[in-house]
Amino acid sequence: MSDPSVPFWKRKALAEMTAAEWESLCDGCGRCCLNKLEDEDTGEIFHTDVACRLLDGHTCRCRDYPNRHAIVHNCDRLTPTNVPRLKWLPKTCGYRLVAEGRDLYWWHPLVSGDRDTVHAAGVSVRGRVGLFEDAMGGEDLEDRIVSWPERIPPRAKRLPGR
Ligand code: SF4
Ligand code: SF4
């Protein structure tokens, strides 16, 4: 589909997007910046409420995005190739939605025109980070497992005002 009146995320495959389009697909939720655990036997992924040390818990953005891979070595780089394979990407993630041929939700900044709607819809991690990884003492990550990063909050499914 080449109709320019159709938003780029509906007419382009991930691999066809410009760098700016690609970056704008991130809704700024911060969910992917939570530590995760994988069951070695089943491959099942569990999210925790422990955030990467570079995450800003209020803006839910990386505090050093350009240098993140030099500072946090296990920060995964998303690409058009690996997005469809990354099972831990939240159901709400803009990259995952587009890779699955789905539309973005009303609260995505590309749709709403407002970077705050991802927080208003309860999708971002704002106010929900329990710990930052550099503040962990002898705690076990398994004790920090939470299910909300895998869920879509009810108000995020409704249109605003309904
Ligand atoms: S989960 Fe997806 S949309 Fe949310 S911050 Fe991570 S890359 Fe961006
Ligand atoms: S380095 Fe930045 S982008 Fe990567 S996981 Fe940490 S906060 Fe998220």
Measure the end-to-end span.
32 Å
Query: How many individual domains?
Result: 1
Radius of gyration: 16 Å
Secondary structure: helix percent: 10-25%
Global shape = globular
The profile of the biggest β sheet is: 4 strands, mixed
Beta-strand content bin = 5-15%
Q: Helix count?
A: 7
On the 0-100 scale, what is the average pLDDT? 94
The molecules bound to the chains, other than polymers, are: iron/sulfur cluster
Task: Tell me briefly what this model is.
This protein is α+β, with helices and mostly antiparallel strands and 162 residues long. Helix content is 20%, strand content 10%. It has seven helices and four strands.
Mind explaining what this structure looks like?
The structure is a single chain. The chain has about 160 residues and is an alpha+beta fold. It has one domain. About 20% of the residues lie in helices and about 10% in strands. It has 7 helices and 4 strands. The chain has helices spanning about 10, 20-25, 70, 95-100, 110, 115-120, 155; strands at about 35-40, 45-50, 130, 145. Strands 1, 2, 3 and 4 form a 4-stranded mixed beta sheet that branches. Strand 1 and strand 2 form a beta hairpin. The protein is globular, with a radius of gyration of 16 Å. The model has no long low-confidence stretch (mean pLDDT about 95).
Key features of this structure:
single chain, 162 residues, globular
